[in-house]
Amino acid sequence: RFGISYEENAGTPGTATLNGSSDTIIVHRFRMNIDGSAETDSGVRFSARVRLQADEQTSDTAPTSRGEAGAAGLNGARFSVEYEGLRVDVGNVAGAIDNMPGYYGEEIGLEYFVGQYSAANYSFLGYSSGGAGSNGVYVRYAMGDFAVAASYDQASSASGTSTTALVGDRWDIHAAYTFGNITAALGYGETDTTVKQDILVLTLGGSWGAFSGNLIVGDESVNAAGVADATTSDTFYGISGTYDVSSATSIGFTYGDGSGTGDRQQYGIGVNHDLGGGVSLRGGIGNSKTGAGTSTTRADFGARFNF
Amino acid sequence: RFGISYEENAGTPGTATLNGSSDTIIVHRFRMNIDGSAETDSGVRFSARVRLQADEQTSDTAPTSRGEAGAAGLNGARFSVEYEGLRVDVGNVAGAIDNMPGYYGEEIGLEYFVGQYSAANYSFLGYSSGGAGSNGVYVRYAMGDFAVAASYDQASSASGTSTTALVGDRWDIHAAYTFGNITAALGYGETDTTVKQDILVLTLGGSWGAFSGNLIVGDESVNAAGVADATTSDTFYGISGTYDVSSATSIGFTYGDGSGTGDRQQYGIGVNHDLGGGVSLRGGIGNSKTGAGTSTTRADFGARFNF
Amino acid sequence: RFGISYEENAGTPGTATLNGSSDTIIVHRFRMNIDGSAETDSGVRFSARVRLQADEQTSDTAPTSRGEAGAAGLNGARFSVEYEGLRVDVGNVAGAIDNMPGYYGEEIGLEYFVGQYSAANYSFLGYSSGGAGSNGVYVRYAMGDFAVAASYDQASSASGTSTTALVGDRWDIHAAYTFGNITAALGYGETDTTVKQDILVLTLGGSWGAFSGNLIVGDESVNAAGVADATTSDTFYGISGTYDVSSATSIGFTYGDGSGTGDRQQYGIGVNHDLGGGVSLRGGIGNSKTGAGTSTTRADFGARFNF
To answer: What is the pLDDT of residues A32-45, one digit of tens each?
Structure first.
């Protein structure tokens, strides 16, 4: 994918050794999965994946500045074993909340820069596209309309959104049930650090003709530097959806907020136009505000293609 | 490609922690393009490329010395959109002078170690094979025998031949016209740093039976550490060509020099023998001298193959 | 491959910025060879290889600890020319001892953590899977049951098992002869550092029905920090073998030791069960002791698959 992105007040003035950067920059991402698989005589499928990804630079690092190209990199490997409804992942895995249906909902713009989960601060086990990731285990079992999943790793600050060192076991679980055109999912995660952190989250998603929508609501208690953080430990909630205005064009929206004084509020709308052959034009405009901080507007537009 | 290379006085004596290196070393390069593409229903072609490259080490870095192997690396991604005669590149692109017909001419040896452009010091927007490269835009439009191209990026010292920080907008343009067996091209580039830098360059190339030749002449004004550098801001010129002595073997030569007292003069001759199946043996010998400095002889020989 | 590994006393207690690691960790390796080849009209084959590999982290590096995932990396490139019985490798090559038949014998477990060569301390020219490797040359000529090989590089501490700086030319040679179901090989290597280092090694391997076995015996003189090291310069010896208990399952064992007071003794047994389709389950348990030091037990179990 590639395009242009505008972020309010993100530009920096130039210096002798560093270009200034504009609020508006060229963005791009190249992503390729390197996959391998083998199947035993009894039908158990083994597979492995490493991802190669190149992005534009997102921050100023002399002598190159925000918006310059970044060299491609490789991430940590993920290994999977699948047999009928059972799947076990080992290595750089996505955990049970990262894989939970309806958690992310509809994300806006070419870069997915706003989402309904904006006020969720808990650092769950997530897949790392650009780095090594965690070395965890994820197990999922699906039977008809019902699925359960659990994941475990030894949490470290290498993954997730927290910059605090997280020392301890980390468990995520979810259960999902589909009835007709509606899917409901309930997830729970906890990290056994000195001050325990946890999250409980419920999602509800469905589609009715040209419209599909998604609700998220949850409660969490998280740490900042090992101390319980009341400003972000709280209830969070969000809603998102898409509407197909024609066979090729759809409009999406998202809104997320939380009850904590340190929570991030985000909302935005976007458009997606399919050109066929795996190519689409995408763009969006949105707003982000953390607690009582300044509200920042961001917009982007560009092309995305699969190969 | 791989082979051996001799460079006068390039070797270094060994120390307790570092092997000395010989003037003559083993050289090699492994290069693979990782490409992906998609085409819309209306025939617009989107493509992306990341390059994987491994070279021998070119300088002493304890504990390994010049001539040891280097680990392979990935570069920055390039994205292209093509429709009929129009092509737009975004990301780690080659600019309008890097893509100008006849700029490089015939380069000598397995490693292309001498070229007709030796006295050109202007740092234009170039494709980076080993690093992130610039995040620029390149547009080319071709109609019959005529083509025009332009490129833009925010110049930084991450690319090009200058080690000076270059802070400012950088524009390159070229126009090329082919009449019969002759192609003429005119290029202009400028970088809007505090002291403006620019280049104007004309090339003329053609082929007559077994012989093909190329002329380059240009004028430039460049900076060193932000101050106009009179020793390299000047006229530069060069000539190169090849002659096919048989259906499989060709001989090439090149010569480049400039009017500045700090300009680099290079000349050399090389030979290329095709073994079929994409394999060729290549070698060359050449000489390089910067301003009134010492003249250095360099030679190499080896095999090159495409896969 | 992936699985779990136990190593006695390898775990570390956690700190504020680093997770402790358990004695038992999740291990994995993703390895893919990126190969290219071309053949001339006269039948000379040129090829090149770069390896992409991802492992779990093997040591504590804040903020991530031993057992976390590691990002994938690329190694140095190897180039080969083959024509009838002759093969020449250039770049990141395996030398004549690394390629000697019967040197490694049967290695134990998913991770090959014990081997019959445990008391050999000489640092020969080896292929590097994770780094740049040496830039060497390896030549092998095979004629019927007989083969000879030689390799040369300028040794540096970047490769091999020695942490001492090795400054000097390094030569390895071997000759191998197969008579009936038995292969014998003799190898010699030397490194011309200030205090010369060398190794002489003899292997004998054969197979009789369901059983195959391997013997190694050798003598070496090595340096530690440029001074001859009497505790490891000595005789070393080992034995290993496998027995097929059924068409899919085999049991292996290995034992290695040396006469020096600083030599490492290792022994272990392992099992390998083939599931078909390139997938196998592998595990082992073994013991390692350096000189009069503490004996350490290690065990692992997991799945390995080729794609």
So the answer is: 888 888 888 888 99
CB A123 within 8 A of CB A117: no
Task: Record the tokens describing residue A295, joined without a space.
Answer: 């509200």
Q: Is B218 exposed, middle or buried (0-12, 13-18, 19+ CB in 10 A)?
A: buried
Share of chain C above pLDDT 90, in %: 39
pLDDT digits over B256-288, tens only?
999 988 899 999 999 999 998 889 999 999 999
Query: Rounded to an integer, what distance in angstroms lies between the CA atom of residue B78 and that of residue B140?
Result: 15
Does the distance separating the beta carbons of B69 and C91 come in below 8 Å?
Answer: yes
Q: Give the E-state strand segments of chain C in sequence order.
A: 2-7, 24-39, 45-55, 73-74, 78-83, 86-91, 136-143, 146-155, 168-179, 182-191, 197-208, 211-221, 223-224, 227-228, 235-244, 249-258, 264-276, 279-290, 296-305
Residues in chain A: 307
Which residue, among B47, B156, B169, would best test binding to A if mutated, counting the most A CBs under 10 Å from its CB? B156
The answer to whether B281 contacts chain C (CB < 8 Å) is no
Query: CB under 8 Å to B84, separation ≥6 — which residues?
Result: none
Provide the 3-class DSSP secondary structure of residue C232: coil
Chain B residues with CB-CB distance to A73 below 8 A: 74
Is the CB of residue A26 less than 8 Å away from at least one CB of chain B?
yes
Any idea which architecture C77-305 has in CATH? Answer: Beta Barrel (2.40)
Query: Does residue A101 have a cis peptide bond before it, meaning omega lies within 30 degrees of 0?
Result: no
Q: Are the Cβ atoms of B32 and C50 closer than 8 angstroms? A: yes
Assigned token pair, B18: 């570092």
Residue A163's pLDDT band, with cuts at 50, 70 and 90, is very low
Mean pLDDT rounded to a whole number for chain A:
85
pLDDT in tens, B86-102: 999 998 999 999 999 99
What is the C-alpha separation between B170 and B160, in angstroms, rounded?
Answer: 12
| pLDDT score of B161 | 43
Partner chains of C (3+ C-beta pairs under 8 Å): A, B
Q: In the prediction, which pLDDT does B75 show?
A: 87
The CATH architecture that domain A80-305 belongs to is Beta Barrel (2.40)
pLDDT greater than 70 at residue A23: yes
d(CA B117, CA B217): 9
Contact of A2 with chain B, judged by CB distance below 8 Å, is answered with yes
Binary contact (B279, C42; C-beta < 8 A): no
Q: Quick check: C163 pLDDT over 50?
A: no
A279 with B40: Cβ contact below 8 A: yes
* Chain B nearest C-alpha distance from C39 (Å): 5
C-alpha–C-alpha distance, residues C31 and A76, integer Å: 12
Contacts of C134 in chain B (CB under 8 A): 68-69
The domain ranges of chain A are 80-305
CATH of domain B82-305: 2.40.160.10
Residue A21 forms contact with B (CB below 8 Å): yes
Q: Are A110 and A27 in contact (CB under 8 A)?
A: yes
> Is the minimum CB–CB distance between A30 and chain B shorter than 8 Å?
yes
A76 close to A131: Cβ distance less than 8 angstroms: yes
Query: What phi and psi values does residue B197 have, to the nearest 5 degrees?
Result: -115, 145
DSSP codes joined into one string, C56-96: B--S-BTTB-TTSB-B-EE-B-EEEEEETTEEEEEES---T
DSSP string, C179-207: ETTEEEEEEEEEE-SSS-EEEEEEEEEEE
C41 touching B (Cβ < 8 Å)? yes
Residue of C nearest to B18 (CA): C167
Closest of A151, A181, A180, A153 to residue A168, by C-alpha: A153
Confidence of residue A191 (pLDDT cuts 50, 70, 90): confident
Contact C77/B at CB under 8 A: yes
- The answer to whether the Cβ–Cβ distance between A305 and B132 falls below 8 Å is no
